[in-house]
Specification:
Elements: E1 2-3, E2 9-10, E3 16-22, E4 35-36, E5 54-55, E6 59-60, E7 70-71, E8 75-83, E9 91-98, H1 124-127, E10 136-139, E11 152-154, E12 159-160, E13 174-175, E14 221-222, E15 246-248, E16 254-256, E17 276-277, E18 286-290
Antiparallel strand pairs: 1-2, 3-6, 3-8, 4-7, 5-6, 8-9, 10-18, 11-18, 12-13, 14-17, 15-16
Length: 294
C-alpha cells in the first residue's frame, strides 16, 4: 500500500481496516459480503490465517500488510481500505471482479455454447473492438516489420486450411478472396453465390443488377467501341467545292462537275484504339479478413 503520510511510498502497512462490499456500495458496514479462508463455499469465514490479519469482514492487517481471501463469484466487489492510525496513511477503494477458482465452476448460463463469454457480459468498450469472423477491413501497415493482427489473414487468394479458421458451419478449408487491385461492390444476398452482375451496360442503373456474394467482373481499363461514342457529326468545308457541285480552281474560276457534292468529302482519321484507365485516384491499404478468434 502507499503510505500517504510518508509521501506516497509503497510499503507494508499494519493496522489498515479492509472491508469487502458489492460494487458501489455506499453503506460499507451494512453491505459487507461473506469472505472465506479457502477456495470453497461455506467454510470458515475471514481472511487466510497465513496473512496474519485479524477479524473476519472487515479485518485488520498485521505488520506484513498482506491479506488473502475468497468470495463467491463471478461477482463485482469493492475493497475498501480505511486506516486505523491518526493521521490517516491510506483511504482508498479499489474494484475487484471475482471469478471462480476451479475449472468448470462458472455457471453454464453465463457461457456461450462455444465456451466464450457472452457479449452481454463484456464492457461496451470491449464489444466495440470486436470484429466478426469473415469481416474484411482496410489495414494500414507502416512497415513490413509490423505483423498482421492476430486472427487475420491478408486477402490475397491464398488457401486457409480446415482447422485454421472459425467459420461456424463451414468445417472445411477455403480460399481467401484476392482483393489486390480491385474495389468492393455490394452483393445481393438473394443471388446465387459467385454470380456476376446482370443487365449488360445498364448494370449500374439498378440495385437488382448487383452480383451475388463472391461474384466478380469488370476491368481497370476499357477500349471504347463506336457504339459507346456519343452521337455526333463533323462539319467539313472545302474551299474548292460548293454545295451545288461546282469545282473551284486554285485561281478562283468555277467549272461544273456533274454529281459532285460537298458530302462526298471525308475528314482524316485519328486515334490508336488504345484502352483508357478507369481507376480514380487511389491509396493502397491491405485488405485483411478476420478468420480466427485471437
Amino acid at each position: 500500500m502507499a503510505d500517504a503520510a510518508d509521501g506516497g511510498v509503497i510499503k507494508a502497512l499494519a493496522g489498515v481496516k479492509v472491508s469487502v462490499v458489492p460494487r458501489g456500495a455506499v453503506d460499507v458496514i451494512n453491505s459487507l459480503v461473506d469472505i472465506y479462508q479457502a477456495d470453497a463455499p461455506n467454510l470458515t469465514q475471514g481472511p487466510d490465517p497465513k496473512t496474519g490479519a485479524s477479524g473476519t469482514n472487515p479485518f485488520i492487517t498485521n505488520a506484513s500488510g498482506s491479506v488473502r481471501f475468497w468470495a463467491d463469484g463471478p461477482a463485482e466487489y469493492d475493497i475498501v481500505f480505511e486506516d486505523t492510525d491518526v493521521p490517516m496513511r491510506v483511504n482508498d477503494r479499489v474494484g475487484w471482479n471475482s471469478s471462480p477458482a476451479k475449472v468448470g465452476s462458472i455457471p453454464t448460463a453465463t457461457l456461450k455454447v462455444d465456451a466464450g463469454i457472452p457479449l452481454g457480459m463484456l464492457a461496451t468498450p470491449v464489444i466495440q473492438t470486436l470484429v466478426p469472423i469473415g469481416a474484411v477491413i482496410d489495414w494500414y501497415r507502416p512497415s513490413t516489420a509490423v505483423q498482421v493482427p492476430l486472427g487475420f489473414k491478408i486477402c490475397d487468394g491464398t488457401a486457409v486450411p480446415s482447422g485454421q479458421h472459425d467459420f461456424v458451419g463451414h468445417p472445411g478449408g477455403f480460399n481467401l478472396p484476392d482483393l489486390r487491385n480491385v474495389f468492393i461492390l455490394g452483393a445481393d444476398v438473394n443471388k446465387a453465390d459467385a454470380v456476376t452482375y446482370t443487365g449488360g451496360v445498364a448494370f449500374y442503373d439498378s440495385k437488382n443488377n448487383a452480383p451475388g456474394i463472391r461474384g466478380e467482373s469488370g476491368s481497370n481499363k476499357h477500349v471504347l467501341s463506336k457504339a459507346q461514342l456519343p452521337n455526333h457529326s463533323h462539319n467539313y468545308n472545302d474551299k474548292y467545292a460548293t454545295n451545288s457541285g461546282t469545282l473551284k480552281s486554285a485561281a478562283g474560276t468555277q467549272s461544273s462537275v456533274d454529281g459532285l457534292a460537298a458530302d462526298n468529302y471525308e475528314t482524316g482519321t485519328i486515334g490508336n484504339d488504345e484502352a483508357h484507365n478507369n481507376m480514380p485516384l487511389y491509396y493502397g491499404l491491405l485488405k485483411i479478413m478476420k478468420v480466427k478468434r485471437a
